[in-house]
Amino acid sequence: MTGGFPIHLPVMNTLRDRHILLGVTGGIAAYKAAELVRLLRTAGAEVQVVMTHAAGKFITPLTLQALSGRPVRDELFDPEAEAGMGHIELARWADAILVAPATADFLARLAQGRADDLLATLCLASEAPLLVAPAMNRVMWENPATQANVDLLRARDIAILGPEAGEQACGETGTGRMREPEALCADLQRLFAGNALAGLQVLVSAGPTQEPIDPVRYLGNNSSGRMGYALARAAREAGASVTLVSGPVSLEPPEGVQLIRVQTALEMRDAVLAEARQADVFIATAAVADYRVADPRSSKHKRGDGPLRLELVENPDILAEVAALPEAPFTLGFAAETDALERHAREKLVRKGVDMIAANRVGPGLGFGSEDNALEVYWQDGHQSLPRQGKDRLARALVRLLAQRLGRNPDQLCTSQLHAQD
Ligand code: C5P
Q1: What is the pTM of this model?
Q2: Which atom of ligand 1 is nearest to the CA of 357?
Q3: Ligand 1 pocket: which of 281, 288, 290 to mutate (most atoms <8 Å of CB)?
Q4: 209, 262, 281, 334: residue to mutate for ligand 1 pocket, most atoms within 8 A of CB
Q5: What are the distances in angstroms from CA 381 to CA 122, 351, 378, 385, 417?
Q6: Count of H-run helices and E-run strands, the chain
Q7: CA-CA distance, 291 to 29, in Å (whole number)?
Q8: How far is the CA of 236 from the centre of ligand 1 (A)?
Q9: What average pLDDT score do residues 321-325 get?
Q10: Which of the following CATH numbers is that of domain 201-405: 3.40.605.10, 3.40.50.2000, 3.30.70.1130, 3.40.50.10300?
Q11: H-assigned helices in 238-340
């Protein structure tokens, strides 16, 4: 490709918790890899840098290690590094591989399918989308040998990002400058923006509810709201219009999502029912209090005012009410269980009349408040396990499964959408 390539910044950040393997090869533009790592980390991605030996002549591994927060890998046969994450595991770890800068030599090695160093081996051993940002002198870029290699790589669905035209380190002017780090970051953002739920309205309930006892006290629970917020974000990433009805939590509202804040179960019910009529999907992650205080006091109960007796009355089951609506959306409920996961989850599926239940084991270090989680997902005639992982990644996996159940094509990350704008 010659010339510029328009930058279309996506409406939201899709890089949160993505695993980016950044290959750095030996060209003068290698110094720009430092800025690229910083931008990717700022966007919330995990970055593993893999350098070729030649790259080490242009930028030190220490710089890239400090910015990425992970030791840089450069040896194929490094017993110590392999004992941590072996090269095959590293190839599987990646959600995308970006080689920036990619030299003429590296493009040639890639075109030949060589596995003569760690980076080339990883490119060969990974199923993740591969993107390369060439950078070289303009004559080397225009050379028919390089152009033939680039054509071959494109035909294999490898995204060729840049190079750009302009002034070159060698003093010449022409095409061969590495695409700028901001633009590469935007390319990755676009790669991860999906459309499996495009055109759908998704309603999510999240967080705890607080049931007042008096003006300063309430009955509550430990729900952090993280799973619901992650699902709202993942549904938005998959192209849905998302409304999030949230109890009190201390989380940043997800970008591009309509947020409705509530406190009590009754407020949550009103907000959810008002939105449910327009919704195609309802995801109920909220830990709704089962009971509320029948008659909360209007003034603060003081010590010495005598024994405090609370009469509790049952709260409505919001999920069951939505599932029973005449034109109910597709409903996905959650079940936190300490034992007999499948039995309890299936019983809930039937009792609440929902389409799908995501069950998780709660106990020490799992469930409420923890950073990661695992889910067993059940529907009338099926089941799928989603293994333990960070809640953002787990939410994306659940949204993919949901899209499948809705008869949608779950997103396959596809470099062709980047080619389309070459
Ligand atoms: O019955 P249980 O509380 O275990 O059910 C959990 C599921 O039901 C969750 O999806 C939760 O958000 C939903 N739920 C609800 N309203 C309630 C209680 C639970 O929407 N009052």
Answers
A1: 0.87
A2: 10
A3: 288
A4: 334
A5: 39, 16, 8, 14, 35
A6: 15, 19
A7: 62
A8: 23
A9: 98
A10: 3.40.50.10300
A11: 265-276, 318-323
Active-site residue, selected from the candidate residues 123, 170, 185, 414: 170
Look up residue 342 and give its amino acid: E
Report the pLDDT value the prediction gives residue 11, as an integer from 0 to 100: 55
Torsion of CA 83, 85, 86, 87, to 10 degrees: -150
pLDDT per residue as tens digits for the range 148-189: 999 999 999 999 999 999 988 888 889 999 999 999 999 999
123 catalytic? Reply is no
Three-state DSSP at 55 gives helix
197-235 pLDDT, tens digit per residue, is: 999 999 999 999 999 999 999 999 999 999 999 999 999
More confident residue, 415 or 39: 39
Asked if 73 and 94 touch (Cβ cutoff 8 Å), the reply is no
Task: Spell out a b/e string for 11-39, using b for 16 or more CB atoms within 10 Å of the CB, else e.
Answer: ebbbbbbbbbbbbbbbbbbbebbbebbeb
Give me the residues paired with residue 165 across strands: 175
Domain regions of the chain by residue span = 19-193, 201-405
Element (H, E) at 394: helix 391-405
Least Cα distance to 99 among 185, 180, 22 occurs for 22
Query: What is the pLDDT, as a whole number, of residue 419?
Result: 63
Spacing, Cα 317 to ligand 1 middle (Å): 6
Taking the alpha carbons of 406, 236, 43, 9 in that order, is the dihedral positive or negative? positive
Cis peptide preceding 129, ω within 30 of 0 = no
Topology match between the domains 19-193 and 201-405: yes
Q: Which run of H or of E encompasses 46?
A: strand 46-51
Q: What's the number of CA atoms in the CB half-sphere (13 Å) around residue 415?
A: 19
For the cut 70, the answer to whether the pLDDT of residue 59 exceeds it is: yes
Residue nearest ligand 1's atom 5 by CA:
335
The hierarchical CATH code for the domain 19-193 is 3.40.50.1950
- Helix then strand then coil, in percent of the chain rounded to 5, is 35, 25, 40
Helix (H) or strand (E) holding 97: strand 96-102
The dihedral of CA 56, 61, 62, 68: what is its sign? positive
Within a 13 Å sphere around the CA of 276, how many CA atoms are in the beta-carbon half? 25
